User: Which sequence fits this backbone?
């Protein structure tokens, strides 16, 4: 039983969860029902908010195998609870449900684990998921994913498609024939409908969900309470505010749902053709597709309704929805290991590894290329929410909660206010009982004190600042889909930048070429488009080795390929559909030079002109293309010159990768030095290679040959040098960030040396700083993993370690505050492979490398996300700025992700900038800081408002009095709401400063500020309250009291007495009430001014004209009715007449209060940080952030940074606390 009670699902994945089984208990349900009735429905609300309590209160524990309800808890830091009901899927209705009939009918089933014999597989699948002879499968749905009970692993597991555990061989051998109708029907039952269903909830559903928010329930409680106390006006104001808030919230939530629905609905239902086992083609709706269906890709293209692997033909696809790149990508059929020269039958198919052969859901197929008589076919591997697009939509529908100290502290602060309210509640009850007050009045007044202490207007007040910030961001072209993140952006202290298209211009320009002849480099050449080179192998390689295609007559493809092809000025022609249909095999794409470049007659004796020549026609046909693979870092083509017997193989890619596949005798000796010279100057270098293929390789054989058979024994031909210019604003923006103590990191897919060079050019790495390259090697042949440390500048200068000057070892400097980590004069650089090895084998080193890692090159999309997580693990607040291309995961994971692309991929990013430049980063941080400070100001002000009012009411309760309804209304509406909504209007300060705003409410200076103001306000209120009683004219007020000696007093009193024929039931009118009302009214305005902070994060408050006008107007109005009473106003506000002398005294109390409050607040601001720790005990505190603590430790570590030319090894098999021991070898 114990083992059954708690299991883990999705182990090791991002959405890993613990799962517990429960069965419904009737007696528990009866008790809960009774509790709901007794609590007036409040218990039901509580159980609605807490799924864990709901299940535990109504169910009993059971074995997961037989349970009716499952309780799920995430294993991340949030530990969130969810519950789901177990459902039963019955297979009896299907004739395929009995194993015998299935084994006869079905031939190509695929279960979670692939079993080679199809008949066995079907039996296995049924037995795995069903428990009884009646073929019932138990499952539950969580976050749009179905989890089925799996008997093999004795746990729930989600149903996988053909994307896991299937070899490339079996894709061709077992799945390429298609499914029978029976098998299709069975799979449809298991996998369900192929759609990414984003249901737009009805307004009613959204309304109920929004209204059942704890804050709105509290507001409803407050409104009911005030209505019973006849305090209708403010109740109405709160109702109106709540309605506005709910309506705007509903509008924005529904708008996002509609946007998401529209985004996924584009491919929701289309008609598709599928191949069945007997080779018949059936037309079905895309919603009926299941993994294993063989889909026919139409000639004129389509939007993919699922993820599918291409097994026949070629497709040109626009993947901008997924990657942000609008560049068309060529997809080729998956290599068939059984016909390839080198059989790699064991290789498992994986959509990520084989993405050049996979068509992803939501991407647009623009064109297809095919063999005559053979259709372009793809096997469906994933459907619905399991597809790549489905996973993106799920991550938007069910985002991870943002954990931010401000919000955690806000809840703590509210709890403190609730505790204060509790004290007032008890005090009121005791005081009322002692004074023999009626029970009804006691209940209302004691509950009223709670609504005073915890202000119902708080959520609206807190949201105001964020809404204003969002509006200001929109004005400067930054759009935000997650407003809560604006505050978090105010805390960013590290920003990661993608390089291409973000720091540098999007495109590359061809700087020149450097050819190789007889294994020696010739001098660089700028002009490639000339008669001398037109028939050279070098230009032939540039003309053919690319993935360009014509779409509606326009040449399109990878920008690098486009620049390269444009530089030679050749013409590309593709076969039309009619031409292709006339031939047995695929018609090649043909490239040829323009006529003006071809010489009139055949030139003699030029060694390079080995190609077959015809004076009139010179064309090259591209026979086979092996697309660029980021894993291999190269692409290649097989081409044939018109009329030539032998074919040519051309290859281009990363210089190191290409040189390794060439004959060593063709690679120049100084290759490494020349390459380094170019990369250090920031050029992007591409190498070219070529070889003649054997004449026995026929056209048909080439179509089935593996790329490994082609890509070897090549002749090295030279280098193409591309230039990637920095964007004009990049250096200035990075300098601003450095001045503001914000670290900058580069994350790129480009080569290491190019990235380091760009980092130096843009000022990310200063000229005097050292760059240490960490080259990590995985364990191999029994040897442990190791890291070789190189100093980038010493790579070429120093041939052996002894030549290194000890002075060159970087100095460690850390600023006093430990924040200025840019002062440290060394930076780590590494590539994606090294980063992965370090994450796996050197976990102890990861935090140290995160502290100074500045350049991360050749990073894959998932590695970018891992880097963001590693930086967050050492307590950095991380921003990420990318152009949307392959940065989706990182943009989503960062605290503040800013996409510079307005494509659909930016749906994953909280912020999108209209202008594709990084100048949006400082703007966002400035606005974030302003919004954060505004939140602090509003929170402090609302806390003071509730405490001031709470204390006013408590003082008055002591004499069985209270504030009048219109007094409450004047304070709550005229003062508080006006002040709150105008004090949030301060715009951001015009530049970023080095100082950072506090991250939480519970910090020494902030708490001291609030507490000191509370003490001051309580002190002056008490002074007024008790001092008025000491006045010679004081008496317990009654309707005929006459303390006024002014000439107008007689009129005032007579008019007042006429209206006061019946007694004042609530004892509102008295001298204490009038005194407390005036003093507290001024106090609200005093703390509003004291808390309205300006520089260095916001514009000074005198520039916030609405706020200044509101405060001055309120000051004059209150001053006027205090010094020159107006009978009608006094009557409405239930103020009594007091002598003029006491009015002046109150004014003096208020002025002294204002002076003390503002002086104390200014002092806390100026000296709080330095004096408070000293006052509290002089001890030096350990920094809270891990990275600051680590910086302190590394200051005294003699072994850090690693010395040049040393190696760090992971000790084999010695693991202590999960970390590897490390030894350093010099």
Assistant:
């Amino acid at each position: 039983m114990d083992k059954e009670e708690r299991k883990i699902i999705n182990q090791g994945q991002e959405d890993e969860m613990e799962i517990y089984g429960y069965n419904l208990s009737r007696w528990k349900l009866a008790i809960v029902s009774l509790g709901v009735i007794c609590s007036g429905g409040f218990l039901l609300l509580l159980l609605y908010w807490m799924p864990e309590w709901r299940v535990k209160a109504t169910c009993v524990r059971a074995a997961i195998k037989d349970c009716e309800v499952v309780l799920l808890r995430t294993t991340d830091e949030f530990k969130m609870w969810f519950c789901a009901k177990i459902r039963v899927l019955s297979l009896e209705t299907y004739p395929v449900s009995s194993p015998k009939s299935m084994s006869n009918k079905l031939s190509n089933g695929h279960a979670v684990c692939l079993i080679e014999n199809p008949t066995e597989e079907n039996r296995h699948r049924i037995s795995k998921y069903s428990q009884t002879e009646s073929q019932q499968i138990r499952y539950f749905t969580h976050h749009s994913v179905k989890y089925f009970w799996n008997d093999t692993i004795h746990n729930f597991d989600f149903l996988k498609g053909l994307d896991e555990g299937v070899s490339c061989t079996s894709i061709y051998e077992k799945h390429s024939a298609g499914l029978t109708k029976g098998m299709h029907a069975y799979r449809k039952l298991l996998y369900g409908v192929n759609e990414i269903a984003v249901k737009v909830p009805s307004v009613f559903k959204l309304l109920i969900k929004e209204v059942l928010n704890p804050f709105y329930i509290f507001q409803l409680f407050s409104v009911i309470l005030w209505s019973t106390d006849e305090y209708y006006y403010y109740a109405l104001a709160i109702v109106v505010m709540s309605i506005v808030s709910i309506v705007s919230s509903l509008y924005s939530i529904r708008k996002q749902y509609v946007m998401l629905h529209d985004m996924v609905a584009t491919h929701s239902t289309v008609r598709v053709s599928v191949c069945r086992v007997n080779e018949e083609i059936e037309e079905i709706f895309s919603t009926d597709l299941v993994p294993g269906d063989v889909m026919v890709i139409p000639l004129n293209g389509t939007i993919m309704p699922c993820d599918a692997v291409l097994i026949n033909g070629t497709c040109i696809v626009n993947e901008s929805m997924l990657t942000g790149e609008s560049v068309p990508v060529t997809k080729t059929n998956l290599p068939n290991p059984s016909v390839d020269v080198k059989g790699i039958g064991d290789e498992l198919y994986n959509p990520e590894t084989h993405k050049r052969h996979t068509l992803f859901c939501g991407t647009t197929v623009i064109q297809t290329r095919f063999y005559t008589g053979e259709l372009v076919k793809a096997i469906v591997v994933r459907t619905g929410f399991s597809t790549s697009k489905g996973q993106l939509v799920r991550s938007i529908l069910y985002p991870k909660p943002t954990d931010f100290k401000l919000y955690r502290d806000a809840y703590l602060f509210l709890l403190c206010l609730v505790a204060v309210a509790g004290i007032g509640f008890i005090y009121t009850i005791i005081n009322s009982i002692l004074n023999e007050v009626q029970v009804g009045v006691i209940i209302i007044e004691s509950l009223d004190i709670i609504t005073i202490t915890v202000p119902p207007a708080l959520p609206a007040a807190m949201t105001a600042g964020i809404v204003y910030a969002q509006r200001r961001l929109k004005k400067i072209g930054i759009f935000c889909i997650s407003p809560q993140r604006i505050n978090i952006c105010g805390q960013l202290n590290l920003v990661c930048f993608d390089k291409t298209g973000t720091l540098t211009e999007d495109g590359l320009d061809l700087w020149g070429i450097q050819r190789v002849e007889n294994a020696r480099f010739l001098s660089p050449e700028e002009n490639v488009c000339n008669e001398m080179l037109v028939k050279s192998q070098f230009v032939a390689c540039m003309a053919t080795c690319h993935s360009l295609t014509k779409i509606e007559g326009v040449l399109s493809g990878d920008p690098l390929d486009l620049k390269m092809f444009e530089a030679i000025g050749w013409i590309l022609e593709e076969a039309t559909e009619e031409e292709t249909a006339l031939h047995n095999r695929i018609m090649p794409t043909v490239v040829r030079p323009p006529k003006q470049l071809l010489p009139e007659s055949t030139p003699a004796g030029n060694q390079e002109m080995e190609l077959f020549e015809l004076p009139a026609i010179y064309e090259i046909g591209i026979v086979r293309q092996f697309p660029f693979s980021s894993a291999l870092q190269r692409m290649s083509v097989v081409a044939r010159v018109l009329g030539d017997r032998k074919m040519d193989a051309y290859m281009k890619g990363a210089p190191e990768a290409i040189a390794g596949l060439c004959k060593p005798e063709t690679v120049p000796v100084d290759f490494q030095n020349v390459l380094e010279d170019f990369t250090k100057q920031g050029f992007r270098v591409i190498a070219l290679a070529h070889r003649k293929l054997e004449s026995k390789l026929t056209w048909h054989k080439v179509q089935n040959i593996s790329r490994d058979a082609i890509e070897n024994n090549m002749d090295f031909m030279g280098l193409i040098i591309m230039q990637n210019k920095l964007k004009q604003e990049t250096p200035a923006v990075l300098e601003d960030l450095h001045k503001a103590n914000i670290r900058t990191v580069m994350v790129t897919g480009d080569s290491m040396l190019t990235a380091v060079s760009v980092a130096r050019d843009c000022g990310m790495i200063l000229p005097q700083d050292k760059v240490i390259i960490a080259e990590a090697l995985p364990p191999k042949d029994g040897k442990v993993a190791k890291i070789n440390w190189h100093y980038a500048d010493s790579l070429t200068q120093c041939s052996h370690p002894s030549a290194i000057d000890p002075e060159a070892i970087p100095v460690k400097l850390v600023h006093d505050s430990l924040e200025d980590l840019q002062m440290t004069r060394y930076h780590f650089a590494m590539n994606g492979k090294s980063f992965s090895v370090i994450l796996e084998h050197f976990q102890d080193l990861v935090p140290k490398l995160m502290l100074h890692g500045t350049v991360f090159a050749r990073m894959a999309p998932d590695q970018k996300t891992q880097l963001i997580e590693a930086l967050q693990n050492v307590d950095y607040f991380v921003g990420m700025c990318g152009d949307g291309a392959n940065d989706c995961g990182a943009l989503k994971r960062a605290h503040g992700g800013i996409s510079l692309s307005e494509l659909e991929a930016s749906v994953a990013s909280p912020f999108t900038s209209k202008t594709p430049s990084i100048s949006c980063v400082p703007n966002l941080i400035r606005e974030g800081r302003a919004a954060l400070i505004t939140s602090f100001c509003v929170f402090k002000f609302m806390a003071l408002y509730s405490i001031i009012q709470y204390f006013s009411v408590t003082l008055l309760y002591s004499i069985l009095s209270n504030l009048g309804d219109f007094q409450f209304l004047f304070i709550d509406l005229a003062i508080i709401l006006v002040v709150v909504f105008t004090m949030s209007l301060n715009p951001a300060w015009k530049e970023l400063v080095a100082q950072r705003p506090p991250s939480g409410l519970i910090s020494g200076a902030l708490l001291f500020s609030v507490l000191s103001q509370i003490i001051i306000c309580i002190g002056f209120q008490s002074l007024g309250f008790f001092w008025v009683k000491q006045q010679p004219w004081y008496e317990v007020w009654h309707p005929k009291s006459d303390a006024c000696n002014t000439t107008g007093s007689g009129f005032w009193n007579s008019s007042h007495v006429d209206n006061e024929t019946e007694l004042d039931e609530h004892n509102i009118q008295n001298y204490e009430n009038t005194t407390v009302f005036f003093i507290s009214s001024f106090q609200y305005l005093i703390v509003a001014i004291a808390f309205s902070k300006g520089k260095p994060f916001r514009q000074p408050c005198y520039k916030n004209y609405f706020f200044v006008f509101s405060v001055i107007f309120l000051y004059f109005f209150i001053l006027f009715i205090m010094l020159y009473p107006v009978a009608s106003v006094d009557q409405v506000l239930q103020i009594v007449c007091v002598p003029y002398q006491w009015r002046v005294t109150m004014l003096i109390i208020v002025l002294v209060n204002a002076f003390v409050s503002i002086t104390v607040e200014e002092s806390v601001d100026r000296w709080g940080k330095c004096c408070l720790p000293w006052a509290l005990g002089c001890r030096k505190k350990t920094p809270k952030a891990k990275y600051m603590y680590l910086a302190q430790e590394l200051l005294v570590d003699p072994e850090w940074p690693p010395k040049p030319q040393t190696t760090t090894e992971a000790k084999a098999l010695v693991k202590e606390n999960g970390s590897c021991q490390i030894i350093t070898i010099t």
About this structure: The chain has six domains: 1-94+135-159, 215-259, 271-397, 478-507+725-793+825-914+1183-1225, 509-597+618-723, 927-1037+1068-1176. Residues 215-259 form one domain.
